[in-house]
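Structure representation.

___
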Amino acid sequence: MTAGPIAPGLFTLAWPLVLGNLLQTLYNLADMFWVGRVSPEAVAAVSLMFPLSWMFVSTAMGVTAATIALVSQHVGAGNDRQADRIVAQTCLLATVVSVVLAVTGFLGRHWLLYWIGARGQVLVESLAYIEVILAALPLTFLFFAFRASLQGAGDTKTAMWLVAASAGLNIVIDPFLVLGWGPAPAMGTRGAAVATFISRLFAAAIGIYVLVRGDWGVQLHPRDLRPDPAILRRLVDVGYPATLDGWARSFAAVAMAALVARFGPVATAAYGIGVRLMSVSWTVSGAVGQATATGVGQNLGAGTPDRAHRVTIVATAATMALLAVAGGVVWLLPGAAVGAFIDDPAVIAEGVVFLRVIALSWAFFGGLMVLQGAFRGAGDTRIAMVLSLLSRWIFRIPLAAVLAFGTVTIPVIGLTYTGLNWGVVGLWWGYAAAAVVSFGIGLAWFLRGTWREGVLEGENGSDAAEADVVPIDDD
């Protein structure tokens, strides 16, 4: 990404990420599909795991967010040996954090599940599922470390193929373990979790092998696994805002769903279907944002911030143009889009209203996600986090509440306010307006150029300068 035409380079980086994200979605749907053949309680148990699973994934993304920025900038600067050290310390940090989370989660699993609403047989099924998923956490974190390391080096295809193989393995073994096909006993939800464990073990093992081989741009040297306090501090300092960002997103999704639920099951169903349709746009813009992070990081490392700026502008404009077209199609055919999921006339009618409002803002949702990717590639993960907080907690939730409801009292502080009382359509307009305003702020912040310095300045301990004189094959 430091030379040649920008658009083809971005496309080369982005399409495997898009496909990988879609495959990950398929990975998750497979468990739900086969568990649905067991019982409604089993489906409820797996569904209740989503908030906890997203918290774990957000933490893994935070631990490895700094890796993309640091590895890409060192690769761009030609400091391959220092990039290898970052990879090793990322694997070390990911292992330690995931083991602590797994042990803590296992000890508090009953309280966690009760807190999110699991009762009776659903609690029993949830326990069977979460106990195995917690054991798989270190494997999940190591795969994220592998993917972030290769992405920083400019390779997005290898991780995509590995996700494809892992998802395929999960899909194949799911019915054997869930329903008891062949010699395996029927294990229900625990079987789905065991299938996930096996597929993640496969992905993590191949990922570590790839890193140790070192044929894909970066290499994991066993001797680099000794704790390096300077690098670990930098990984945590750059990465923790990404973790907080993910947590803020998950809590905001719960808060928005709670607001929608006040208008009954029809609105809730329409919202759920609409958000699933929007998730396709998030898959695309999120992948382009990840590719932009790599492009920005490599160019900052190479000392070409102007090209990093152009990478971001090209990526943002292309993403917004694509999503504007997609949003236009959905705006013209909202009934067909909702009707593909459900045949209830009331839900379709409300879904049409939702899509007609939200589709107008799809391009702005995507543009903001790309800009956040640029900030992360520069190592400014705090700015990306602040933009998420602004978008969801400062604009979306308050604005939606003001537009949707009449007189509202906030219980904790006893504050009463009078809203516009538009009803559920007010929620939709608040959702859309927040995206437009947040994109405007993100673009203005990007154009200020404070991100141009990157995060290599001031590294101590094993410094970039030292990396130039240390042979890559020093093992």
Observations:
- Confidence is low (pLDDT under 50) at residues 457-475.
